[in-house]
């Protein structure tokens, strides 16, 4: 009798309840899209896309295209009003993301009234507890401002003296996998404790890259080692409850033809099947030169979805298009309507994204 009761209770949790409507293809496609926009208040078109379920996430930046411009972030009060207006427009929890790593990569800058977060390089020399506390302080501020995703920490290992855009910007915790894993996961623990979802990046490892993927595709075929996977292995063994962000990096032995972010062999193969990750995977910015050169928008969307990415990230910062969110949505819908992407594929990402949101505190999710 106890076994039967348990089965009944489980089924009651899994089956749709009264008034439940299965998500439409459009809503599931929208949930997979995260796009940036211009302005310290949300454009009408963005609010409309959010309210109609065609945009499931936004990413915010602090720098405008001209010196002195505020892109999205001017002050704590302005930012809180911006995120509140976007969240109020959405029937479901909207993912609101920033890159708040510390040091040079801080969208919430102290000169604009935000918490001063030191760089990963500096945090790499601190104790784990000190780093966790910093993650908690930064996360608490983000949560209060309506930000529920921090695209951090970086778990790349410093393998190159050049390390353009990473090591030379203070974004790496260190060179050894043990040190990087300890400090990065301590920072992530602080974020989660504060109610913010972290993201490990940049899978499978950018630490040996000699090019900046914002501009060109780095080739790490001769320099990458499997030690760069160890922070992910440890995180997954501990029950990682955030995201994994996949890099635009080329490794011939992992995929002879495609960069990691667009590769089924890397995302569905190495990350999911070999390492066992079944949570949310977010692409790096699909406007970056490493993948945008020579590829149309629709091709990038097609390859990213078929590779196994759940969230397609378009920063809309390197090159601005006020209609980009709609163009990405329409590109994905064309792929669905032509049978290139199936409803079942959308459902996979939908389930992962909804499960991820359940890790948010009640005040940050609905």
Notable characteristics:
single chain; alpha/beta; eight-stranded parallel beta sheet; two-stranded antiparallel sheet; 13 helices; 10 strands; globular
How many individual domains? 1
User: Which assembly state applies to the chains in this document?
Assistant: single chain
Assign the CATH class: Alpha Beta
Q: Helical content, roughly?
A: 25-40%
Secondary-structure-based class equals alpha/beta
Terminal residue distance: 35 Å
SSE string, helices as H and strands as E: HHEHEHEEEHHEHEHEHEHHEHH
Characterization of this structure:
This protein has 366 residues and is an alpha/beta fold. The protein has a single domain (26-364), classed as Glycoside hydrolase, family 3, N-terminal domain (TIM Barrel, Alpha-Beta Barrel), CATH 3.20.20.300. It contains 13 helices and ten strands. The chain has an eight-stranded parallel beta sheet with strand order 9-8-7-6-3-2-1-10. Helix 9 links the parallel strand 8 and strand 9 (281-283). The longest helix is centred in the middle third of the chain and has 18 residues, at 177-194.
